[in-house]
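Page 42, continued from yesterday. The earlier attempt failed because a stray header line got pasted into the input along with the sequence. Redoing it now with the clean sequence only.
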Amino acid sequence: MVYALDRLIDEGRIPLLPLYLDSPMGSKATEVYRRHPEYYDDEARKLFDAGETPIDYPKQIVTNDVRDSQAIERAARPYMIVASNGMLTGGRVIGHLRTLLEDPRAVLLFVGYQGVGTLGAHLQGGARTAKVEGNVVDVRCQVRSISGFSAHADEPQILAWLRNFADVGPGAERRAPRRVFLVHGEPDAQAAIEPKIQALGLQTTIPVWRQRITLD
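This time it went through. C-alpha cells are written below.
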C-alpha cells in the first residue's frame, strides 16, 4: 500500500497527507525489503537505482509504540492510517475503529480479503452497526474495498510450490508429503483446488469442524 501511495504522490494524483504506519509487523517486514533490493521487480528496481525510495511515503509517521498509536486519534485531520487488519478481529486497527466508524467524514478502505463471519466481512456487506471491543457503534463512515493487494500465493503459485515436492525423480518419494491438508480458504475454493493437488499424485484431506487427526 505504501508503494502504491508513493507512486500516486509522485504522479500528482493524490494530495500529500500525513500517513501513519501503525503496524509493528509491517515496519519490520519493510526493513527486510530495504535490505534486499535485489528481489525487487523491474519497475521498483529502476526507482531504487534512480535514488528514489519507493517503499517509503514522504510524510510517513511510524508508530511502533502503542502510546503513539493511541495518540493518532488526537492528531489534526485529514490523515491516513495503514494499520494491521486481521479482518478487523484483531490488530492495531481495532483501536481506531470506534472513532472512525462513527465519523461520516472517514473512509474505511479494505485492501485485503475479509473472511466470512469476520467483522471486516460484516462491514463490507453493508452493516450499519458493529460491535467493537464489546460496544455497539453506528457505522457512519464510508466503507470501500480494493482487491489485488493480497500477499498470499494464488492457485498457480500454490500448485507450483507443491509440484516441487511431487515431481518424479530420485528421492521424490522421500520429499513428497504423505498427505496435504487444505485448511485455508473458503469451502468452494478448497473444493476447486483439491483435484488439482491430487493430480500431482498427492493425497489430500479437507478437515471438517472439530475433526481430530493423529499425525504419526
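Notes: Strands lie at 19-22, 60-62, 80-83, 107-110, 129-132, 135-138, 142-145, 180-181, 204-205.
Reminder to self: strip header lines before submitting.
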